[in-house]
Structures are given as C-alpha cells and as structure tokens.
Amino acid sequence: MRRLRACLGAAAAVSLAAVGTTALVAGSASGATTALGNRWYAAAPYLMPTDNDPPDAGTIMDATGLKAFQLAFILAPNGGGCSPTWGGTSAVSSDTAVQSVINTIRAKGGDVSVSIGGYGGTKLGQACSDPASTAAAYQQVITKYGLHAIDFDLEEPEYENTAAVHNEIGAAKILQQNNPGLYVSVTTAGTADGTGWFGKQMLLEAKSQGFTPNNFSIMPFDGGFNGAASQTSALANFNTILQSTFGWDQATAYAHEGFSGMNGRSDTGEYFSQADFQTVLDFATSHGMDRFTFWSLNRDRQCSPADNGGRTSGTCSSVAQNSWDFAKYSVKFAGATPPTGTPTPTPTPTPTPTPPGGACKAAWSASTVYTAGNEASYNHHNWKAKWWTQNETPAATDWGPWQDEGPC
C-alpha cells in the first residue's frame, strides 16, 4: 500500500523529535544557534534537502514565516554497519551538503530537526545490535549538527520487527536521558480506528521500557481516508488508545498526541486539500494536541498541467495551490501569523475594443478544471487561464492563474 512512498521518501510511522538544550549546543561542532520554542519543532514540515527537487528553504521562510524544518532521512549504510548516513549513501561524518542547508536556515533565524527512518532503506534500529549502539549512532547526528531536534521515523517493514522497535524505542529513551530537555515525538501509522496492530505494539514497547515522549503522532493517510472528517475521527480514536494504554485522561492524552499528514494527493490516491488541513488544524488546536506536521515541503507546490491530479509526485502536490500553501498551516500551529504578502498588481491591460455589452464566455465554475487558454466569464469580465486551475476565483494578479480579457 505504501510502495510509492518508498520512491518518494515519504515520512511515516515512528518519529522522535528532540528539542534543544544548552547541553546539546555546547557539544556541537556546527555552531548551532539558540533553540526555537518547542512549538516550532512540533510544527516542522518534512524537507528532503538533497532529493525530490529540493526547494530553497530560505524562499519558503520568507514567503510563509516558517522557522523549522524536518530534514529527511538518516539510515544505516546500504552496505551494512551501524553508522548514520543520509539516505544510506552519504556518511553523516563527512557531510557538507546538508550542513550547508542547515547553515542557511539558521542564518535566517530558523532551525532544523533531523528525521531518522522513512519507508525505504535499512534503519539503524535494524542494523545496530542493541539500544545503546543505536543511540550512539544517533548521538553522532545530534553532535555533528548541534541539533535541537531529532525525529525517528519508523515504519514498514521495521516496525514489524520486534527487535528493531526495541532498539529504536530504547535509543529514544537513552537520548532523552543523555540530552536534558529533549522533546521527543513518536509517530506511528494511522488507521480508521487510530492505529493498527503494529502501532499498538510500539506503544506497549514504550510503556514496557518506561519511556514517555512528549507526544505520539499518527499519519492518517494511505489507509482509506477521505478528507479531514476521516482524519479527525482517527485522531479521536487514537486518543482513546493512548488513554487505555498509558492510563491518561482525555486531556492528557491529547497533550501527548500529534498529527502528521500528507498534502495533496496521497500515495493511494486520497486527496487532502488546504481546507482539509485547516479543519485538522482547528481540531488539533482546540483539543490541545502537541504536534502538527506533514509530508512534505518538496511537494508543497503546483504540479505542471500534465501531472496535476493524475499521479502522486514527490515534487508537487497534484492539487490546485499556490506555492507553500500547506506550510502556512504549520506556521499557524506554531502560533505565528503567515505573511499575507502584497503581490504587485497586474497592470490593467488596454482592452481590445469590443461592442458595448459584448458576449460573455461561459460562466466560471469552481468545480470545472481549466487549462491554459480556456476562457470563462466572471463578474462581467472574460478571463483566460494561464495554466491548469480549479476552484481559484478569477482575479487580476501576477501570481494568479487568470488573465483579465476585459469587460463583457
């Protein structure tokens, strides 16, 4: 069901986020800056810094007000061994490419979390012999980048491996103990009833090791979901599972719960729009949830007309959007107001002379798909589509999909 996500590098099932402390910064060779507030790390969307046509982080920060990024993914080496690499191929110890991305983000007042796991490749919990050696490998990542946050992303097939899950959860506990102030989030796959059997076993493993993170998050997508209502229902059901597993009341369980979504078209053909994100955001904030993130910023932009809506892509959302629309919901969750921007208005064109009361084209419809060159009328003007668009009201702006062809 999630095979395509292996190609996309999609974020998935077990996440740990570690928020920074003085101890973490002091042990760093990277010149890390002061940690952001916990809410920013809880809101950091995923970004692949070297794959899937990575967008410029600084551009996203300027356009949205976003400050935190979840960089993906740390794996064991493809050839075997218990040492951290980017994507199984590039050793963390000798990395300069990702370090450059991190430096850019920090220079603009932001920070990063590093994500461990993902769908493809071999995870360190599978390759290392025990929790201590797994934690030691992850500590190299924390020290290398002076991290204030780290994200463990455990999913199939690792989270079906009892020994690997034991190593990952044990490593999380060790890192939490050895790095005072560590903010830890554990995310597992979402299902309609909250999470499946393996997710529940992961929760029981955490309980058995006496490990309590800041939150457990689920990913309600790629499981037969249909918009925000199905996602908020799964979050409510997962809350019940947390209560029964850990003996928490409802409010405490929500305070330890998070959401990790997928923007646009999911791997299995589900669609999640900006309106769906707003609904889930409202649910998360009104219930006091601790985390709101999504996969991914690489996908937070409009597809080309050929791609839009037809397939799931690692580099665009397959839904109608402006660039970085979905990132703005993370900004809101962090407690900031995204900049509205003041696009330069399109100069009013000199209309082609038309007889007074000239014929209007067919009325614009929010449900109709328009491609470049298609025409429609709206508010007594005719409009021509510049590119693929749906449910975007015609308006004369540089950044919009419509060109004003004059009154009709």
Structural class from helices and strands? Answer: alpha/beta
Question: Taking all residues together, what is the mean pLDDT?
Answer: 85
Distance N to C terminus: 50 Å
Provide a count of the helices. 13
Order of helices and strands: HHHEHEEEHEHHEHEHEHHEEEHEHEEE
Number of strands: 15
Question: How many whole angstroms does the radius of gyration measure?
Answer: 23 Å
User: Uncertain runs with pLDDT below 50, 5 residues or more?
Assistant: 1-29, 342-357
Residue share in helices? Answer: 25-40%
The global form is globular
Strand residues, percent: 15-25%
Written account of the structure:
- By secondary structure, the protein is of the alpha/beta class.
- The chain starts with a helix and ends with a strand.
- The strands form four sheets. Strands 1, 2, 3, 4, 5 and 6 form a six-stranded mixed sheet that branches. Strands 7-8-9-12 form a four-stranded parallel sheet.
- α7 crosses α8 and α10 runs parallel beside α12.
- The chain contains 13 helices and 15 strands.
- β3 and β4 form a beta hairpin.
- The longest helix has 19 residues.
